């Protein structure tokens, strides 16, 4: 039996790896330059965030309309300057992860994308704000662990144990969708909702109206008895990697202590990337303490 986080992360040899730099730079370089000029001078974390690949995603999300892309990106920079997603550390949200309700998988999809596994039926807390911070933390972590040349992630959502009583309020669902759509555009490649109960349909009828067309089209329902939906999912995932909960052959279990060790190491990697100086210490039981001396360039 493999632990969800005790094996090394497999990075397959990709035949069709997404590499926007090679495929699209000549076609879209003028638009990227135009958006960069429209944004004006940037500094600190904003400058680091606004790499060419980032500008590409915002342009793609707004159908290459520079004015709309500029507005969207400026709103994200404002959100990041106050929410500070890159500063969230595992010890702040570790309690949310004790049941494995959201975790990074130990495998990639066929395109080399990082995979997040969500188990909404394993909800274990009541703080909606901290639940959202936990999800944002893991989105940032998934991005941190993307292979070179890959910009997107995949989501697998397991509805085992899900009931309306364990579902998040509509407002929280809307806030989550807004953050994903508006501040992480073109980061989600595909989201598979595996075998949701019929009662989920009532929840979905409301939630889907908060989604823009592009996001809505990335959400796929998979039912074990529906051959087409199963085949679609398996076109994205190797059956040997796919957990049995999603109809695959891999037997994986979530080990909070092991996963926490990985997240602590990733916190150090993230701190180095963003220019922080974190001193992270494990204090056992899957949690960690942190002496954080923050010395980043000023956020702007």
From TrEMBL:
Instruction: Give the signal peptide as a residue range, or say none if absent.
Output: none
Checking PROSITE patterns in the record gives:
CRAL_TRIO (PS50191)
Q: Which SUPFAM superfamilies match?
A: CRAL/TRIO domain, CRAL/TRIO N-terminal domain
**Taking every annotated instance into account, which residue ranges of this chain make up the domain CRAL-TRIO?**
92-254
Question: Which CDD domains has this protein been placed in?
Answer: SEC14 (cd00170)
Superkingdom of this protein's organism: Eukaryota
**UniProt cross-references to PANTHER family, sorted A to Z:** GH16843P, SEC14P-LIKE PHOSPHATIDYLINOSITOL TRANSFER FAMILY PROTEIN
Q: What is this protein called?
A: CRAL-TRIO domain-containing protein
Q: What organism is recorded for this protein?
A: Hibiscus sabdariffa (roselle)
